[in-house]
Structure formats: C-alpha cells, structure tokens
Prior knowledge:
Blueprint: H1 2-38, H2 48-59, H3 68-103, H4 115-129, H5 139-162, H6 166-190, H7 193-204, H8 212-231, H9 233-240, H10 243-248, H11 253-275, H12 281-293, H13 297-321, H14 330-353
Helix pairs in contact: 1-13, 2-3, 3-8, 3-11, 3-12, 3-13, 4-5, 4-6, 4-7, 4-11, 5-6, 5-11, 8-11, 12-13, 13-14
Amino acid sequence: MSALRGSELRHKYQRFIARKVLFFLVMIVGIVALAGVAITQGSADISSQDAYHSILARFFPESFQSTAFTDMIVWDLRLHRIIMSIVAGMGLAVAGAVMQGVLKNPLASPFTLGVSSAASFGAALAIIMGAGIIGGQWMVIGNAFIFTLLASFAVYGLARYKGVTPETMILAGIAIMYLFNALTSFLQYAARSEQVHEVVFWMMGSLGRSSWEKAGMVLAVLIICLPYLIIRSWDLNALGAGDETAASLGVDVERTRVVHTMLASLITASIICFTGTIGFIDLVSPHIARMAIGGDHRFLLPGSALVGALLLLGSDTLSRVLLAPMVLPVGIMTSFLGVPFFVYLFLRRKREEH
C-alpha cells in the first residue's frame, strides 16, 4: 500500500513539474516568435526577408548578404530595442514578484516603495535644473538611478525605526512616494514649458532611448541578482506562511526582507533609469504566472520573468505599429494592457466571493 501511494505521489509530482516546464517552453517559444515579428516591424521600408538576412549575414557572411541601410535599421535601431524590452520586462516582473512575496501583498511592487517617484524627481532635477552627480549625456540616467536607490534606503531607514514589517515598509514607501511627487511637481511648476514636456515624456516610459550598451548593463544586473533570488526563493515561500513560521524554519525574516527588497530595488533602478517609468509589468506578470503555475517562488520567479519579457516586447511592438510612423511611449501601452487585466481580476474575485 505504501509503495502504491509513493508511486502515485511521484506521478503527481512529475505532472506538477511537467506543467511548469511546459509553461516555460511555451513562454520561450512565444518570446522568440514575437521577437522574430518585432524585428520586421517599423516605419522603415524593408522586407521581412531583408531583416532576417541582415541578422544571419553577421553570423554566416558567406551564405547571406545584406545592405548597409538594412544593417543600420536592424542592428542600430531595432535589435537592441528588442533585447532591451526582453531584459527590462524580465527584470521588472521579477522585482514585482519579489516585492509581492516580501510584503505579502498581491498589489505590491517596487513602485510601492516610491522608487518611480524618486526616479522621476532625479530625472526632472537633471532636465530642469541641470543638476546631477554625473555630467554629460548620463546626467538624467545617473540621477534617476541614484535617487531610486536613495528612496529604497530611506524606506528601509524609516521601516527599521518601527520594525521591518510589510505594513511599515508600505507606509514608509507611500510617504516617500508623496514626498518625491511633491518635489517633482514643484520643479515642473517652476520650469519652462519645453522642460515640462521633456519630463512628462520621460515619465511615460520609452524604449526609444535604448542601446546595446544600456541593454548590456541591464543584462549584467540581472545576471548578478537573479541567481541569488532564485536560489533563496524558498525563503519567500516561508515568508508567505507568516513571519513566525518562517523564523521557526530557520529563515532570518528581517534580513531576508531587507536583502530581497534591496535587490528588487536595484533591478528596478537599473531599468527605469534608462527607460523611464514603465508600469503594470511588475504587477501583472506575477499574477499571470501565479495563475498558470502556482505560487511556489522557485518557479514563480523565472515564470514571471518570461511573462514580463513577453508582455513588454508585445507592448513595445504594438506601440511601434499602431500609429506608425509615430511611436507611442511603451508606458502608455502597458497601462492600456494592464487595466483590463486588473478589471478581470476584480470581477473574478467578486464572482468567487459570491
């Protein structure tokens, strides 16, 4: 009897794992297929065949030919933007999943801690006042990155004063968010109209400022942070059972909450300093992954990353083709896609309650 029960459990576990592997494979195939479509879309008049030949010619120059114009469009304008959308979507989604696990709140995200408001203030300070620690073309990027990290440390400092709990971190984040919103509004009030326009455009979020160098920097941050988060994902599972239960299982609750929050903030800062504010990816992606493969963070984190990459790549592709040759800020498109999803979640929860 015990052998039969063990065989049944093994079979259920195999199906449990197979479902998640299938989900990962479907997401990877979807990302590759969508990237193949995205490389062919744009206002430049080049065919799909020319776009693919441009990529293949870099690796197989003896078998494929391409023109300088096509190479410029594909390699200098489109391909690094596609890579940036994939890595940025992965980073924002993982950061959102981590924050939801740390704060035990399905509506939590790094932006809950005021990092978006802090980044906007840093960018506005550089655009309007011309003030920044880093000069030149990196001033806006440097300011956004530094103020995002400052906001994270400020939230931690305020929460530490009253005890690092989900409630104190959320309240501290709200306070920081309103502070930086007020400072940004003050700068906009005192600025010239063209400066205000530039700040507002930055806050909408766009992948048009991407480059191979910037995409490489974001990828490097993910390579550093993601393995640790996935390795320590069991700690997030333990936190979900309650702080006392997690502590009884040997988890250092406060240290786990602080380290995971800081890593999520670092990932978010490394992305939005280049792209501006891109909302909803960090909120929606973990929900979709959780609905598909469950809440085990060992699978939820990589699953959220794949969903986030697919969503942001799809949003950016739509933003380039809907009103071509005009390109919409991708932050607008992610909001359009995110709002219906949350309405669906709201209606679904209402039905479940009844």
